[in-house]
Design goal:
The chain has 468 residues and is α+β, with helices and mostly antiparallel strands. Helix content is 46%, strand content 15%. The protein is built from 19 helices and 14 strands.
Length: 468
């Protein structure tokens, strides 16, 4: 029998092999990521693994896919449910991008700490929003919905195997192998001819819309390794002649703790695709939709920490508007230095980031009585705080990556009111609960405090309650 986590690990590895064959520059990205990670470990020692062991970081991947209808999204949820992955978070990229990105998204990932440690594979999954009149008028929406209704992304056999794996939390070897083959094949780039006129019609609205609704299949848009020094990777990739996007999305590089998520990518490449002309003939064309992303993960922030982060982004934007010639990275570093705590201890004490807590074995054996309260336990060395890795995504950064790899700005009519999509709507489309990432992190912290209290024979220990 093959357990869910082994199915998940095998699926991630096979996707990586497949994507490397389809997009050779991705293999270069993975190789450089490994080089950088090994160098960082040599330079920093154990501190390099504070946010995850080298084995986990090197094996870690997140993928990205796009689908067109709630029914397709529900089928995706079944496939990833087979792998022990649940939908976490709601991201509205329509509001996060300056250009036209008409999608809302969630991320499928493991949620249990042990499962994340075994294999933290994530898939950022975007759903087209044809009902949003800012992007699609009535006529185009009708045509688009009819086109999407007429395609089948996932074969019934794959979905049946997925349902069995989710229910039983494992599959027999033969069925597991069949599931993996069908699942990987579902995300390969199709060689079916693309209707050039229809694709171009959607591309005028958004290159993302064309990639979703202009073809009769879905595919992996990018597969993302994790790196311990994203600035070093950016420089090495550029040195190898790989064209990178202009910036690293997310927080700046600075002297204090890394928080949330930093991302960058190499630019989408022209890929040969057969195109069907209006007269029915087929000729080779080229589309630019797939790219190679890389990420560096930091510490998960609490709602108060996220409020501070969003406020700092606003300050950076305001300063750049006042000083158009200023370098964004330099402005961001100065804002971070002025507003974000420079140590993990202060982040924790102010309740801005999530940590778990572990009893120090030496103090537990010295015969003295531990103090009450988390601050005293930390200050006197009874307990160690360990940062919780941010396992999720940032809509502004995701939109920035999408936008940097689009073939054009597209069109959006901001005079019209956008269609309402939210977490509850998404849960209805999925047919399952969309989990709150903050609740997951808070539960992880709460469990660790309960373990500390039990080991030290103390009453309940309260979590930090600081505020911005």
């Amino acid at each position: 029998m093959i357990s869910q986590w082994r199915l998940r690990a095998a699926f991630a590895a096979r996707l990586s092999d497949m994507y490397g064959r389809e997009v050779p520059a991705y293999t270069t990205l993975v190789d450089v990521s490994r080089e950088v990670n090994a160098d960082v470990l040599r330079e920093r020692g154990a501190d390099a693994e504070r946010l995850g062991s080298l084995g986990r970081v090197t094996a870690e991947r997140h993928g990205a896919i796009r689908v067109g209808t709630p029914a397709e999204l529900g089928q995706v949820a079944r496939i990833f449910g087979a792998l022990g992955m649940r939908p976490v978070g709601f991201y509205d990229l329509r509001e996060a991008a300056a250009s036209a990105v008409p999608v809302v998204s969630t991320a499928f990932r493991p949620v249990d700490e042990e499962e994340l440690a075994r294999n933290p594979f994530r898939v950022f999954t975007s759903l087209l929003t044809p009902a949003d009149p800012r992007f699609f008028d009535d006529g185009l929406r009708t045509r688009l919905e009819a086109f999407l209704a007429g395609r089948e992304l996932f074969p019934p056999e794959l979905l049946a195997l997925a349902d069995r794996a989710e229910t039983e939390r494992e599959l027999p070897d033969e069925e597991g192998e069949r599931f993996l083959r069908l699942a990987v094949a579902a995300f390969e780039l199709s060689r079916e001819p693309v209707d050039r006129a229809w694709y171009r019609t959607l591309e005028k609205v958004s290159a993302v819309a064309a990639d979703i609704g202009g073809v009769r299949s879905t595919h992996l848009n990018h597969l993302t390794p994790r790196v311990l020094d994203i600035d070093g990777l950016y420089a090495r990739m550029t040195g190898r002649g790989i064209e990178m996007i202009d910036t690293i999305q997310g927080p700046p590089r600075w002297e204090g703790p890394d928080v949330l998520l930093r991302q960058t990518s190499f630019r989408a490449l022209d890929e040969s695709r057969p195109m069907r002309e209006p007269d029915g003939t087929v000729a080779e064309g080229a589309l630019r939709v797939r790219f190679g992303e890389v990420e560096a993960r930091g510490i998960a922030l609490t709602p108060e920490g996220r409020e501070l982060y969003d406020g700092m982004l606003g300050l950076v934007d305001a300063r750049l508007a006042a000083e158009p010639g200023a370098a964004r990275a330099e402005v961001a570093r100065s804002v971070w230095a002025a507003h974000l705590p420079a140590t993990e201890r202060e982040l924790d004490a102010r309740g801005l980031a999530y940590f778990t807590y572990r009893v120090s074995p030496a103090r537990a054996r010295d015969g003295s009585r531990p103090p009450a309260g988390l601050d005293a336990l930390l200050d006197e060395g009874w307990v160690r705080a360990e940062p919780v890795v941010y396992e999720d995504f940032l809509p502004r950064s995701a939109a920035g990556i999408f936008q940097s790899n689009l073939s054009g700005e597209g069109s959006r009519d901001d005079a019209r009111e956008g269609a309402a999509y939210d977490t509850d709507w998404l849960a209805g489309a999925l047919g399952r609960e969309v989990l709150d990432p903050y609740a997951l992190y808070a539960a992880q912290r709460r469990r660790s405090l309960a373990r500390v209290a039990e080991e030290l024979d103390l009453p309940e220990i309260a979590a930090p309650q600081g505020a911005v």
